Amino acid sequence: MTDFTPRPDDHFTFGLWTFGNPGRDPFGEAVRPAPTLDSIERWLGVLAEAGAYGVNLHDNDLVPFGAASAERDRIVARFRRALETSGLRVPMATTNLFSHPVFKDGAFTSADARVRAFALDKCMRGIELGVELGAEVYVFWGGREGAEVNAAKDPRDGIARYRQCIDYLCAFCRDRGYDLRFALEAKPNEPRGDIFLPTTGAMLAFIETLADPAMVGVNPEVAHEQMAGLDTSHAVAQALDAGKLFHIDLNGQKPGRFDQDLRFGSEDIKGAFFLVKLLEDARWQGMRHFDAHAYRTEDERGVRDFAVGCMRTYNILRHKARRFAEDAEIQQLLAELAPAEPALEEAMQAYSSASAERLGAVACALDVDAIGARGLGYERLDQLVMELLMGVR
């Protein structure tokens, strides 16, 4: 029987905010204890025992907002000792620019220069914390960077301010010699009515306007793309094609709902399969990060079950991706969909007047009516994938 047990070399990571989520929602109080340094230390051991590679964090997941320098240093030193004991690493860090009321109308995109200055300083301190803990990627999620009232701000100004802040922080890292890559995370809405740069595609276009685009990539999230009605694997494929997939957030999501951050693969199993298949086929070397949390019904044992479930589901789908590649019937259908046309392939490699003439000669000889009448067998192909996923192939 195949072993789906998670191991550190699977590179699975969780956020301090995921296993520390107390289960509070807009209509109900917390059902689990709020995280403390003691509970964080305990959870590092639990995750290490379960086979995780590391943990990621916002600055204030570890160090309380407004903590004095001495308190900050004491907390970080204790956390580093716990990391050493557990063997876990911190591959990614980020800054909380959404919880405090000062950010109620944005951080980087606020019209108030005082807010933007505070956000930049908070990010620089957060970057220093991330570097101290060994992070190689720094994520920016603009949860408050948007609007409910369009009359209040010109979106061009918001985007320009966002660019100015990212450029500033890139320069800060270069000046300090920090070997960090930035990853921008898109979301269409929530908590704002509308968020600027709402999809991964929008972020990829924005990156090309930066002063140092090579330093900046994206952090697509399954739920965020699905909230916009998009196929996550398509967004991730675009990021891979651009060489910009610096990080990824894996979770589950019911279509058309608020951001649920459900256990990975728990809802759209076929979508989860094709995302895993894409990452594995691409041999992507990054972390498989689970930005999700356990159901509000769960106690601490249930939270562990949630974490193990995320990792096991990924490994099961990784195994299914290998079975897909080995399935003779599926592969025969795929081969039939791409008949060999070496003359056309060669002519389309690069334009020249000669290649255009060759292409035209071949194209004119095609029986387009016969090609148009040809069935492609997608019903059969999709059913074979479903049977593979349901375990009968």
Architecture overview:
The chain folds into 2 domains: 8-326, Divalent-metal-dependent TIM barrel enzymes (TIM Barrel); 328-389, no CATH class. Helix 5 (113-133) packs parallel to helix 6 (155-176), helix 9 packs parallel to helix 10 (269-281) and helix 10 (269-281) packs across helix 11 (300-326). It is built from 16 helices and 10 strands. The strands form 2 sheets. The protein has an 8-stranded parallel β-sheet with strand order 8-6-4-3-2-1-10-9. A two-stranded antiparallel sheet has the order 5-7. The longest helix is centred in the last third of the chain and has 27 residues, at 300-326. With 393 residues, it is an alpha/beta fold. The model has no long low-confidence stretch (mean pLDDT 97). 49% of the residues lie in helices and 9% in strands. The radius of gyration is 24 Å and the shape is globular.
Primary descriptors:
393 residues, alpha/beta, TIM Barrel, eight-stranded parallel beta sheet, two-stranded antiparallel sheet, 49% helix
Radius of gyration: 24 Å
Structural class: alpha/beta
Oligomeric state: single chain
Beta strand count: 10
Name the poorly predicted regions.
Answer: none
Task: Give me the CATH architecture of the largest domain, please.
Answer: Alpha-Beta Barrel
Instruction: Give the averaged pLDDT, no decimals.
Output: 97
Q: How is the largest sheet built, in terms of strand order?
A: 8-6-4-3-2-1-10-9
CATH class of the largest domain: Alpha Beta
